[in-house]
Structures are given as C-alpha cells and as structure tokens.
Amino acid sequence: MTSEPIDPGTATSESADTESPTVITTVVDGVARLTLNNPRRKNAISLSMAAAIDEFCDLVAHDPSIGAVVVDAAGQYFCSGADTHDLATSSSDPASPEAVSRTSAVYGAFVRVGSLPVPTISVVVGGAVGAGLNLAMATDVLVTTPDSVLDSGFLARSIHPGGGHLSLLGRAVGWSTTIAMAACGQHLTGTEAVARGLAYAAVPVDELPALVDGLTGPAARDPELTRRIMTSARLELGPPAVSWSSALEIERGVQMWSMSRKGKQAWSSRGPQQ
Questions:
Q1: How far is residue 121's CA from residue 191's CA, in Å, rounded to a whole number?
Q2: 71 pairs with which residues across the strands?
Q3: Considering the entire predicted model, what is its pTM?
Q4: What is the fold, at CATH topology level, of the domain defined by 23-218?
Q5: 192 contacts: CB under 8 Å, gap ≥ 6
Q6: pLDDT, tens digit, for every residue of 33-86?
Q7: What is the pLDDT of residues 96-123, one digit of tens each?
Q8: How far apart are CA 122 and CA 141, in angstroms?
Q9: What is the C-alpha to C-alpha distance for residues 180 and 158, in angstroms, rounded to an integer?
Q10: CA distance 124 to 31
Q11: DSSP 79
Q12: What is the rounded CA–CA span in Å between residue 222 and residue 66?
C-alpha cells in the first residue's frame, strides 16, 4: 500500500513550527485523509489551515477515484476551535471586512467538508470544542473514544455560537440537548454523544483504525456508486428532507443506472453476487 501526498495540504501557520505542515493530506486506495497537524495549539484552526482544508476539498470534489474522506488530527486532541490569535484580532473590530473575512474563511473550511460528494468520517480523540466541534459535526459520520469531550464551548468564551453551530447541533441531537450544550454550558462524553445521536460509535483509541477502515473500505471500492448514493442522500435527507414519494423518484433513475451498469450476467439464480 502506498501513500501519495497531496500538494495543497502543506500550508503552515505562524503559530506553529514552520518546518512542519499544519495540515497533512494523503490519498491511499481511494481514501483521502486530512490530518490537522498543530498539536501544540490543540489543532486550533488558523487561516492557513482553513485554506489548506479548502484546497483539499477541491481535490476530493474533482477526483472521481476518491470514495471516502477521513478527517483526524495529530496529538491527543482533535480540535480546540478557531485559533485564538485570529479571534483576538477580529474582536477589536468584529464588523470590519478583515474580521468578517477571517471568520468566514474558518467557517467556510468546514462547510466545504460538509458538502463533499463522498462519505466523510471525523475521528475525534480527546475532544472537540467550538469550531472544532463544527468541523466534526460537518462530517457525515463522527467516531470518537468513550472519554472524549464534545463541547459547544462558545458560551464559556462569552461569545455567541457561529458557523451554523446551533443548526448542526440541532439536526443531530434535537432541541433540548442543543440548548443544554449551547446555552447552558453542558458537554457530552463520547459515550453520551453516541447515546444522543451526535456520534456513530465510541471505541477505545486502539480500535479506531479498524473502525474507520470498516467504514471507508466499502465506500472506496466503488467511488462512482458511492458518490451517487451521497447525492441522493443529500437530496432526500436535506435539510430539508423530502417526502417518501419524492425520495422514490430521486432514487428511481439512479438505481436503474446502477442496475444497467451491473448487467444481467452479474445476477445468478441464487440472488445478487457481490
């Protein structure tokens, strides 16, 4: 198995060692991986990291051989949110064009991740706070460890949530838990996040690679089909979701395409052969 580095994933930030990329990206066997690599600052998202994430998303969107994406982080903590250096600078005049541009760049990075045409899996170890939680929630599948902490975090910093944080929380956990986290300062452990529907699974850290491989492997084996499934899922589930009758019509033509691609000879008298 070989790993091919992706050139756009080598941006560095002023707050990190300039000899080391703060975002590392690779593609292996149809699985693209984006690794936040600024552990000294708990992988806080700087402007250069946001730019690298955006470029990574461009590559995934335009490379039909990629069937799945993994978003993880170096070190013992997934992401502590936006870089506080940038937040401090923006707070001096938050309505200025420069401040709006800085904030939009960070938010735009995880919006891009959430719009990719393939399944995206975030691997949260240690914790995710604020914009870091937004990034994790922007992915299609969040996996974590039982003791990781998923925290809204905005209230503790005395700022209003941003980046569609309330919407992302609400579609995952509903009104009550959203308010408990965003307005009442509560957090969820990985185990609690699974129980509330925010995470797909919470397993010990040494079991995460096998879990991720089990999710990405089938998706990456047939990228074309996977991308079409994802398109239908986004159309049907939204938000907003469509009616069952509309879902039937969305799926009809794509299923016909997949059947014609498979062909009659691929079916035996005992049923479909995978």
A1: 17
A2: 34, 122
A3: 0.87
A4: 2-enoyl-CoA Hydratase; Chain A, domain 1 (3.90.226)
A5: none
A6: 999 999 999 999 999 999 999 999 999 999 999 999 999 999 999 999 887 676
A7: 887 777 788 888 899 999 999 999 999 9
A8: 6
A9: 16
A10: 18
A11: B
A12: 9
Which amino acid is residue 242, in one-letter code?
V
Whether the Cβ atoms of residue 108 and residue 114 lie closer than 8 Å to each other: no
**Rounded distance, CA 160 to CA 266, Å?**
55
DSSP state for residue 230 in the 8-state scheme: H
Contacts of 179 (CB under 8 A, 6+ apart): none
How far apart are the C-alpha atoms of 57 and 273, rounded to whole Å? 34
| Amino acid of residue 210 | A
> Tokens 């700087």 identify what position?
46
Task: Report helix angle 131-138 to 165-182, nearest 10.
Answer: 120
Using a 10 angstrom Cβ sphere, with 0-12 exposed, 13-18 middle and 19 or more buried, the burial of residue 236 is: middle
Cα–Cα dist 149/193, whole Å: 9
Those residues whose C-beta lies under 8 Å from the C-beta of residue 114, and which sit 6 or more positions away, are 120, 138, 139
* Structure tokens that stand for 257 in this block: 């395409």
- Residue type at 244? W
Tokens matching residue 181: 């986290």
Beta-strand relationship, 120-124 and 271-272: unpaired
CA dihedral 111, 114, 115, 121 (to 10 degrees): 150
